[in-house]
């Protein structure tokens, strides 16, 4: 088939520069598709994530969390940040409870189950340290703050309260300066 055949499986932008949002098309998994020249001058769809300030659901937030594992540039919406926080809490809190109660002896020492669960917990936390730091920095970018503000979290108690307050702040358009 020729590259101009409308049934060859490719999607070309409509004349006049209309996007899918303007034509009433449903968004894809990462928002509306924009089109641009691909390799060798061919047109191809480019996935574009939801713009900051736009609500994303639980599943989309988790997918973006892992897809942007170590991406410290860009921005993360409030919903993306807090859905990930809920996801991490739903995994770590039960592990902590299992380590604390059935995983310890009356003397306070870990038994076999506690040791195994401690290794699982440590492995999970180690694997999720970088993406959690990245989403926190992207959330600060969305409120137009430098990622260096995450260092405030190192201050005992007060630092965590400040980080929570900053994560609750609404989206600021000026944060676009962090997009690349």
Automatic annotation (TrEMBL):
<feature type="compositionally biased region" description="Basic and acidic residues">
    <location>
        <begin position="1"/>
        <end position="11"/>
    </location>
</feature>
<dbReference type="InterPro" id="IPR008523">
    <property type="entry name" value="DUF805"/>
</dbReference>
<feature type="transmembrane region" description="Helical">
    <location>
        <begin position="81"/>
        <end position="101"/>
    </location>
</feature>
<feature type="compositionally biased region" description="Low complexity">
    <location>
        <begin position="13"/>
        <end position="41"/>
    </location>
</feature>
<keyword id="KW-1133">Transmembrane helix</keyword>
<feature type="region of interest" description="Disordered">
    <location>
        <begin position="1"/>
        <end position="46"/>
    </location>
</feature>
<protein>
    <submittedName>
        <fullName>DUF805 domain-containing protein</fullName>
    </submittedName>
</protein>
<keyword id="KW-0472">Membrane</keyword>
<feature type="transmembrane region" description="Helical">
    <location>
        <begin position="113"/>
        <end position="136"/>
    </location>
</feature>
<feature type="transmembrane region" description="Helical">
    <location>
        <begin position="148"/>
        <end position="169"/>
    </location>
</feature>
<dbReference type="Pfam" id="PF05656">
    <property type="entry name" value="DUF805"/>
</dbReference>
<keyword id="KW-0812">Transmembrane</keyword>
<dbReference type="GO" id="GO:0005886">
    <property type="term" value="C:plasma membrane"/>
</dbReference>
């Amino acid at each position: 088939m020729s590259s101009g055949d409308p049934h060859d499986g490719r999607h070309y932008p409509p004349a006049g520069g209309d996007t899918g949002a303007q034509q009433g098309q449903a968004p894809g998994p990462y928002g509306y598709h924009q089109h641009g020249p691909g390799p060798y001058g061919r047109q191809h769809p480019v996935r574009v994530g939801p713009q900051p300030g736009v609500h994303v659901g639980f599943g989309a937030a988790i997918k973006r969390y892992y897809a942007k594992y170590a991406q410290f540039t860009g921005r993360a919406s409030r919903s993306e940040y807090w859905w990930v926080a809920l996801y991490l809490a739903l995994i770590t809190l039960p592990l902590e409870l299992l380590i604390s109660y059935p995983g310890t002896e009356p003397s306070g020492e870990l038994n076999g189950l506690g040791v195994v669960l401690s290794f699982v917990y440590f492995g999970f936390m180690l694997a999720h340290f970088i993406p959690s730091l990245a989403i926190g920095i992207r959330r600060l970018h969305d409120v137009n703050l430098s990622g260096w503000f995450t260092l405030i979290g190192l201050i005992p108690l007060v630092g965590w309260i400040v980080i929570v307050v900053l994560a609750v702040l609404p989206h600021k358009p000026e944060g676009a300066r962090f997009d690349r």
